[in-house]
Amino acid sequence: METALDKEPLALLPEICLLVGALAVLLSGSFLPRQRQWIARLVAVTALLGSAAASVVALTGPAHTVYAHTYAVDTAGGAARLIVVAATLLVVCLGVDELAGHQRESETYALLLLSALGAVVMAGASDLLVLAVAFLLASVPLYGLIGLARTGAAAEAVVKAYLIGALTNVLLLVGVALLHAVSAATTYAELATRLAGAPTAVLALGVTGVLAGLLFKAGGVPAHFWVPDAAQGSSATAAAFSTTVPKVGALVAAYRFLDALPGAGSGGVDWPLLVAVLAVLSMTLGNLAAYRQDDPRRLLGFSTVSQVGYLLLPVAVAGRSDLALPSLLLYLAGYAVTNLGAFAVVAALPQRRTLASYRGLARERPALAAALLVCLLSLVGTPPTAVFVGKLTTFTAAWDGGAAWLVVVAALNTVASLFYYLRWLAPVFREDPASGGRDGEGRGTGRQAEDPSARRPRATLAAVGAAVLVLLAGLGAGPLGGWFDGVLAR
User: Fold this and answer.
1) Is residue 76 within 8 Å of 325, Cβ to Cβ?
2) What is the pTM of this model?
3) Residue 486 above 60 pLDDT?
4) Are 304 and 87 within 8 A, CB to CB?
5) Angle, CA of 193, 199 and 203, to the nearest 5°
6) Which of 47, 77, 184, 441 could share a disulfide with 124, CB 3.0–4.6 Å?
7) Bridge partners of 64?
8) Cα dihedral 257→116→174→185 (10° resolution)
């Protein structure tokens, strides 16, 4: 029976801040003239900062569930809250130049807050029905964000995202229905005990359906096809957000869900092996598809597919290694700031839509070139960057969890990924020949002379700031990892 202690509205204060902020932004933006939409931006930033402060306070308390054990208030959920909020703040910063004075500026901020709220709720859900609602809350605003660019490429991207999202949403709901049918429960605590004797076929279909929905949000194989199109066709703001923030909620939700199952291979189904295979497919197909990409946004889109593969390593050993959850959270934090830093460089240089057009960037814009160097090397996993620490800890967790073969495959993919990141970096540090936008072999660079008035200083600031954070996170990984271990042990 539900007790009064289960009802703790203040435990959901971070989520409430995001919801109230989204509504306030939407209402205020409806009455503000276009030249004063910065007020809506200020409201959004205030809501995000309030949510971050409430999340920090919540982390100091003991881990528990609220509202009849349907929502978890613990370290994993608290870390996801902070990562999502910090990432959304960085997205707002890198998108200010692009959105300032735009007719849909306030709507964009409202959609960002609502989708971020969905990602947070996904990460904290400890009930299948709450997870299904959070999936919709994270997805519907995301479709709107991708389509706000009002271009043919954006229309194609949003249609693809919507169709794949609708399909995986149906699969997720079918999975929820099947698991409820064989367990008469939806909370993870009850599923852990009631699924032990469930029919293998029904259990397999149910869990596969739920994983399909979560992989769509994470951007992993086989529901990854929308990611590169969204990265290429939408605005820089939407591309940065859609390739980063949904992953946080989806992967923490996947870990929490799989960890609640009654044991690896329960019912004759080897769930760790299934997740490991999906991890291999994501990292391998993402890397192979990124090799021949010439658009930096599309390259980052396939890069984010490959990163899902590495992020699935600790999910594959959920419950079998004490390092699994801390490594997942560390990797998510490092990946979020690194990926957003790379997209901030893209946002600061909107006219450069090919890799060749970045030729001479180190001489023309040394700060942006340095930021891009740090972020791309971090995505590879080069020390002493944030993603290096994430990969090192996730590899260790997978090895400790008995998936040594998966670590070997991930290491090989890491080495292979260096090629296409270097394809982007090589032109950056080459001199731009005075040949009217052509490279040294006479090929067109695809870039016109930059108009100084079109520069985006806030996106540049976001890129440099993200690069600094990437290095600081890598250098301070020891204390940060110790803090995670400490709060998880409470």
Assistant:
1) yes
2) 0.93
3) no
4) no
5) 70
6) 77
7) 73
8) 50
How far apart are alpha carbons 266 and 488 in whole angstroms? Answer: 26
Structure tokens at 4: 């009064």
Q: Is the peptide bond preceding residue 384 cis, with omega within 30 degrees of 0?
A: yes
Q: Are 265 and 252 in contact (CB under 8 A)?
A: no
Reading the block at residue 82, the tokens are 């902070």
Tokens of 161: 């995202």
Which neighbouring-strand residues pair with 72?
A: 65
**Adjacent-strand bridge partners of 444:** 438
Closest CA to 365 of 239, 464, 240, 472: 464
Q: What is the dihedral of CA 332, 336, 339, 345, to 10 degrees?
A: -160
Q: How far apart are CA 80 and CA 86, in angstroms?
A: 10
Measured distance CA(47)–CA(25) in Å, rounded: 9
Contact 370/378 with Cβ under 8 angstroms?
A: no
Instruction: Look up residue 187 and give its DSSP letter.
Output: B
Burial of 229 (0-12, 13-18, 19+ CB in 10 A): buried
Q: Please, which pLDDT band fits residue 114 given cuts at 50, 70 and 90? A: very high
CA 315 to chain centre: 15
- CA dist 320 and 113 (Å) reads 35
Inter-residue contact 210 to 238 (CB < 8 Å): no
Q: Hunting for tokens 């291999």 — which residue is that?
A: 280
Kindly report the three-state secondary structure assignment for every residue of 353-395.
Answer: CCCHHHCCHHHHCHHHHHHHHHHHHHHHCCCCCHHHHHHHHHH
Query: d(Cα 116, Cα 110) in Å, to the nearest integer?
Result: 10
Of 117, 140, 108, 114, which is closest to residue 22 (Cα–Cα)?
114
d(CA 252, CA 235): 27
In the three-class reduction of DSSP (H, G, I as helix; E, B as strand; rest coil), residue 92 is classed as helix
Helix (H) or strand (E) holding 405: helix 404-428
pLDDT at position 232 is 96
What is the rounded distance in angstroms from the CA atom of residue 238 to the CA atom of residue 146? 6
Residue type, 182: V
Q: DSSP alpha helices (H): ranges in 100-234?
A: 105-124, 128-147, 152-183, 188-194, 200-218, 226-233
SS (H, E, C) 409-441: HHHHHHHHHHHHHHHHHHHHCCCCCCCCCECCC
Query: Residue 246: which H helix or E strand, with range?
Result: helix 245-260
pLDDT for 38 equals: 87
What is the per-residue DSSP string for 308-365? HHHHHHHHHTTTT-TTHHHHHHHHHHHHHHHHHHHHHHHHH-TT--SSGGGTTHHHH-
Whose tokens are 């999340």? That residue is 55
Q: Is 101 helix (H, G, I), strand (E, B) or coil?
A: coil
Pair 52, 86: CB distance under 8 Å: yes
Query: Around 433, how many Cα atoms within 13 Å sit in the side-chain half-sphere?
Result: 10
